[in-house]
Structure formats: C-alpha cells, structure tokens
Amino acid sequence: MLTFSVSTLFGFTFSNHPGVLILGAILQIALTYLLWNAIEIHIGKRLFIRVGIIAGLVSVVYFALQAAFIGLLQNALPTAELASGPFDIGLLLFILMSFMSVLWLQVRFSSGDIGSGWQSAYVHFYNGLYISSFANLLIRRYWPAKSPRHS
C-alpha cells in the first residue's frame, strides 16, 4: 500500500513506469521483513513507529531519486518500450511474486518452533539451493581457465 501511494505522489503508475513500481515494491518487501523482525523481538510501540517512519522515508527517497534521474536523463538515454504485452506483465508479476514468496519463507521458517525437516529446507533455501556451486562446477568443466604461459 505504501509503495502505490508514494509512487502515485511522484507520478509513477503501472502503465507508465512498471519497472520502477515493481522495484519499489521489492524494496518495500525488504522493509516489510525489517518491520516483521521489529514486531518479532517486541521492540515497543515507540521504536516500531520509528522503524515505520524510516520505511516510509526510504520509499519517498527511492521514488524521489527515480523521478529526479528520469527528469535528468530522459533526453540523454533512448526511450525504452514499456511492458505492455501479457508476457511482459506476467513476467513482472512473477518477479514480484517470487520476492513475496521469499519474504513468506523468511518469516515462516526463521522462527525456532519449526520442525527439523523445515529447518533443513530453510538452510538450503537460505543458501540459494547451492545454485552458485552448481554453476561454478559447470563453468569449470565447460569453460576451464587457461593457465598463463611464462616465457
């Protein structure tokens, strides 16, 4: 809700700047996790309000910077085609839902009262399912580094 209200103040809508709006929503998802942790450790009403104000200010600063850079660079950069087809919009929504799923996983599995099977799954998800290790293995196998020759 905060993302859409602040983005509207700066003139960003899903029809004219979908990427800016999606990135703002992803930023707010990260801030939601910060707020969730504040609730989880019972920091008190006063500090929770301060954290909420910080989240709002971060949102305002993000959209203000986006508006400033668009204003400064709109004549210097080529215009990009907006996401208008069903595939483009579906991809943007898929990306947003992926980040929301990560938030749900972080909130659901970070508590200590989950079973050992879920804790194991959380560790593997937290480590990105070791995709980087698998990618490094493939790169070393199919694109090996050549050792430098000394003369």
Number of strands: 0
The biggest sheet amounts to: none
Shape: extended
Task: Compute the number of helices.
Answer: 6
Cα gyration radius (Å): 21 Å
Instruction: Give unreliable regions as ranges.
Output: none
Q: Structural class of the helices, strands and pairings?
A: mainly alpha
**Strand residue percentage:** under 5%
Span of the ends, CA to CA = 65 Å
What share of the residues lie within helices?
over 70%
The chain-level mean pLDDT equals 83
- Would you list the SSEs in sequence order as H and E? HHHHHH
Topology:
Blueprint: H1 2-9, H2 18-40, H3 45-73, H4 86-109, H5 116-126, H6 131-142
Helix pairs in contact: 1-2, 1-3, 2-3, 2-4
Descriptive notes:
This protein is mainly α. It is built from six helices and no strands. It is extended. It starts with a helix and ends in a 9-residue tail after the last helix. The model has no long low-confidence stretch (mean pLDDT 83).
Which descriptors would you attach to this protein?
mainly alpha, 6 helices
What is the gist of this entry?
With 151 residues, the protein is mainly α. The protein has six helices and no strands.
